[in-house]
Amino acid sequence: MRKMKLQNIRLAQFKNYPQANFSFVDGINCFLGRNGIGKTNLLDAIYYLAFTKSAFNAIDKDNILHEEAFFSIKANFEVEDKNIEMLCAVRLGEKKVVRWGGKEYEKLSEHIGKLPLVMIVPQDTDIVREASEMRRKFFDNLLCQLDQEYLKLLVNYNHLLKQRNALLKSFLEKNRFSADQLAPYDELMIPLAMKISDERNKLMENFLPIFQEFYKDLSDNQEEVAINYDTRVTKSFQSDFKGQHQKDFRQGRTTMGIHKDDYVFLSEGKPVKKFGSQGQQKSFVIALKLAQFELLKSTKNQKPLLLLDDIFDKLDDKRIAYLLKMMADGRFGQIFLTDARPERSKEYLKKIDTEKKFFELDLNRAY
């Protein structure tokens, strides 16, 4: 198994941190302190290192400390006995800079997948409860970490989709339709959509049995669960897509394609979104995230970084015990977790025989 460790992180004007330095252990790193102190922001800084963007604020300037002009995140990683420094820096009005081992990326997408990471946060139940976009985002995140080529396909498709939608909007505003103007977009988007859909289907073949095994453990083998990949990208997609022209014209946007796909979560044949209890939805989400972790680990031959935000407060005793058992069994690699109640974390983790480090956060002191 390939070894990767985040040794330290150094923040400058990132979110609510004017300056902060943290050094980490191989095992469990706990960020403790009252709500609003910056625990989740610290997890987000680690997430930023893996994805070159925030998990919560897509607009980079929103991650700069109030009234400042830039932020930077510096870190050192130990990768296969090599020490590699990473930098992410954003300055107002300038291009974002991301360097790995001193070399700046021309395209940020080249970095995705280099640092596999799984994050579990309280709002993850939105994956089950909210619109299809949340479920696509979850599985696309996994696919992009697994395969750089998939990321390129998705970026190209979304770029063309944006342009095609702008053209359709102009048709609607002028009340004038032109199939000839749409044709170049159709010819480029159709093969991309078919390839992306094929990759999503392949992922489900590998993902589903792993997910079902975790869910079985979490639910004491009481329920049969499934995930159906719902797409209109079929063998007749080329003609179907072109057959939507008039509908696209009337609505001023592209009404068919992989951006409309969904993943239907089922328990005993019924949609979990509509009929699942709160407990079932939480088990579904935990199983999804653990399956994501296992698939990344087996494919990359490397344990992903695991970020756990406020899990002791949001999960029930049964699901907490399950995660703690996995920690104790050594299933995970380096872990970063947050908790507003220090004594609770210390009590939960004291029985786990691994290196632990507790950071009691206070913005009035330097780190």
TrEMBL record:
Record carries keyword GTP-binding: no
Annotated keywords: ATP-binding, Cytoplasm, DNA damage, DNA repair, DNA replication, DNA-binding, Nucleotide-binding, SOS response
Gene Ontology CC terms, in alphabetical order: cytoplasm
UniProt keyword Nucleotide-binding, yes or no: yes
Gene3D superfamilies: P-loop containing nucleotide triphosphate hydrolases (3.40.50.300), RecF/RecN/SMC, N-terminal domain (1.20.1050.90)
Binding site for ATP: G33, R34, N35, G36, I37, G38, K39, T40
Residue ranges constituting the RecF/RecN/SMC N-terminal domain according to the UniProt record: 6-343
Gene Ontology molecular function, alphabetical: ATP binding; single-stranded DNA binding
Superkingdom in the source lineage: Bacteria
InterPro entries registered for this protein in UniProt: DNA-binding_RecF, DNA-binding_RecF_CS, P-loop_NTPase, RecF/RecN/SMC_N, RecF_2
Main subcellular location: cytoplasm
Subcellular location: Cytoplasm
One biological process term in Gene Ontology: DNA synthesis involved in DNA repair
One Pfam family this sequence matches: SMC_N
Protein family according to the UniProt entry: Belongs to the RecF family.
Chain's role: The RecF protein is involved in DNA metabolism; it is required for DNA replication and normal SOS inducibility. RecF binds preferentially to single-stranded, linear DNA. It also seems to bind ATP.
Name this polypeptide is given: DNA replication and repair protein RecF
Gene: recF
